[in-house]
TrEMBL record:
SUPFAM superfamilies: Chondroitin AC/alginate lyase. PANTHER family: HEPARIN-SULFATE LYASE. Gene3D superfamilies: 2.70.98.70, Chondroitin AC/alginate lyase. Residues 831-886 form the Endo-acting ulvan lyase C-terminal domain. This is Heparinase II/III family protein. Keywords: Lyase, Periplasm, Signal. Residues 540-667 form the Heparinase II/III-like C-terminal domain.
Amino acid sequence: MEQSNSVVFKKRRTFYTDEKLFNARKNRANYGWAKEMIAAVIQEADAFVNHGHEYLWNIVTSQKIPRSYGVNQLSGCPVCKKEIDRLGNYPWLGDPVQHPWKLICPGCWSAFPSNDFAAYYESGKDASGFFNPELADRSLLINTLYPEKDENWCVDDGYGWLDPGNPDKESGRYTFVAYYNHWMLWYNGGVIYSALKALSEAYLFTADMRYACAGTILLDRIADVYPDMDSSVYKWKDGFRNSHGHSGLGKIVGCIWETELVKQFVLAYDALFPAMNHPDIIDFLAKKARLHQMHNRKTSVSAIRHNIESGILLQVYPAVKKRQIRGNAGMHQSALALAAVVLNAPEKSEQWVDHLFKTQSGGSGDLLKILVNDVDRDGHGNEASPSYNNLWLENLKLVADALEGSILSPSIDLYEYPKFRKLSHMAFPLIMLDNFTPSIGDTKKAGDPGIIGRLQTHLSMFERTGDPLLARFVYFLNGNKLEGLHAGIYSDAEKLCARLNGVIDSYGAFQWKSTHLTGYGFSALRDGKEETQRGLSVYYGRNTGHGHKDALNLGIYAFGMDLSPDHGYPCFADQNFEKVRWTANTISHNTVMVNQSEQENQIVGLPNHFTGEGRVRVIDVEAPSVYPQTTLYRRTTAMIQIDDERSYIVDIFRIKGGNEHLYSFHGAEGTVSAEGLSLIKQTRGTIAGEEIAYKDTVFDQSVTSGLNYLRNVERDVNPTAPFSVDWKVKDTWGVHPHCKNVHLRLTMLSEVDEAALADGEPPQNKPGNPQRFRYVLAVRRGADVQSQFVSVLEPYKEKRAIESITSAQLKINGKSVCGSEAYAVRVAFAGGRTDFIVNSLNKDETYTVNDRFEFRGFYGVCSFEKEKPVYAYLCEGSMIKVGERHLFDLDAARCLTGEVVYFTKEMSAVNEIVVRLNESNQGIRLIGKWIYIENDGSRNAVYEIKSVRADGERLILDIGDITLIRSWADDFDFSQGYRYDIYEGARFRIPMSCEWHET
């Protein structure tokens, strides 16, 4: 094992251990996937080796050349204008080998800038080999590509070209060179990043010194420039857009994306470390040092390592503290963890790792604070978006991997910490129809299939934890087979598959059931198998960060498709009007907007009822904080079986307060028709008014409604209920090619003041996204208005199963009643079956429903065939009575109450609540039910009961790995303990539900 002359280096490798390299060689010999993976890396590395050492040295640019990812996000291409936006967020092409310093528009194939920047760049190099614009020949700044234009057209000196037709520095500046420098050279996919990654990995896999020499020369040159890098001097307002969360900070790129760049630098150093004493490396770098009069003469391996260490590794800690390297949770922490481990300097490395776990005033460490305060009990981060929350797992896992087996001493073992393990459970409860992660917040595209979460990440988590749930999820992601499974090139694939096989033999494949994630704020009802799967979801979680203002948003899935897709990731993630006023705004989602304003911030809503199995499945949840002017903002949604293959949905949305309630719903892309409405086409303008143009900037500056993003309007200003809107769904994403006639039909039963149809666009720079969705918008107005939007949603194929949908009459003591406290619906089928659905917020009132039966409770369904009852469902109620016949025992669906006596107060994978009931639970099965505990309302306290055991007069309720801890009592002093979501003495309720079948 080689030893360095420097006291800093104690080990040959630190992150890339001998065990990892042994597994890589073994996998390469035994598995085709490993051979293909390594062959691809070697092919890429060979290309860079063939370019030569001079090329690799010279492609590294200095601080004086700006970097920017945001070129032309507003302006488009100078030739084809905004058409380029449809090709993606960052569509420009480039070839640094064949066409250095040129961007190519993929829309019209024009090249930019118009001047020969390569010659200008060479003319400005100083004695150190870095570009200095003060030395450059400005006579070269002339348009040579487009003689039909003036000599200054699209000329870029490195700081962009300002379009004379749009002199605004932010929106009118074309930063061609900065974009090229960012994407084609430095960042992920650029030649510097790609070359370093390929060369270092190729050396690991082959020990071929050609790759080590080329990679070390490139890495050493990066170390020459890295300390001076500071992207903050290139301002957003001047058109230099970088990913820095509007902090303006960064080094090579914005501080968020900088985390990924620097990790590749650190990993490359660890990989190439043993080969850095090769004479070809020392000879080349020593000559360059003499030529450019460098302080470090690079005449020895120690000098080269010192240059890389001081120029890269030792820059990480101060840059993290100064927020120059700062990303989402786990991003900068994993960069610092890798740097600490690879540096392997006892005092510095221990200090850095200690910094990671403590709470810092600038937030640069904070790992324990993040895990306790910010990862919710269901394993989601605080970013709302599943895509971004999944990044927490990926990056925090890298911290765990870096520290695992190192000589450093972190305060906790992340792989043994319950909240970290819970992160790995984030992805699979969200999946709908085996094929969709809902596009919550800034996630995915508009209705596209695909599952958030990498197979290899979850398999690696299983490898280290043995969690059977992860094994079953991995098995599912791999098509319910073991063939080809691997956690990566450095893992023992044979041993891992044997362990997986044992788990699958014991537990079987994953079975999707209904989901109630009360900590995250997502509930889903699921039914059916394989081709007959269908489901609905209600999101009531965070609407901040990478979330949208979409509390109580409804999603519908059937026939292999997302039938009411959310818009997903916005056009651009900055605070542009299209994102803020439309894509992320309340109006674009399937929920209700109050007073033409977006929702206020919330952490999570308040679930009230949930039934996930049986013929009737119910979600009942409210969001009390999103509209302060309301006293009720609540959605109760049920999925009811028609038969084994089909279901329909009854949706009741209640709002009290405010002077306008606007119900918004859209189906998937397709042809839309309406029945029962007298629609008049609006000839111009938007739903905001004929005088308000589409995307009107002046309107956006003063009004937050987003109504000016809905156009092609048809209105009925005096509608009569019921009316229906039918979407003939287009299979936009090609997920169900054999199902040609899928529909989603909405029947609105409530009286409204106005109804309209209008088009709203999902982001159009996401390739494949639909061009438009057709919205139905129903409005109620008044002083302190109370609304009860009641609709029936029917996914169907070819032919409807439902014959008619009407309101059912409700009476109390023989007198008809109306209002927003209760509603009943009658659904009739062609085969003779009739369902009556009734929902009441007054659970103690007795209603007569359509003169057919009596009901008392929260939710009930009673089905008749030939005038006889054949099925009934009752939730938190005491009666469904047909004639003199009671279909339920008095206590069958009652609500148990009591108080909390004690609960688990430490961070644990096993959590319990000890309770005392106010009444007997004799004969009542509590397993699988949900306990709703009163608390301060900051977050809800709703938990599934996994198992029950008696302790005298008390019951001990097992809630599994769901912690009751809310946060640290003092983020800076962990010895002060925790805050909790519940407290001893808190009252609770456990609502029951039950079914009755005619035998």
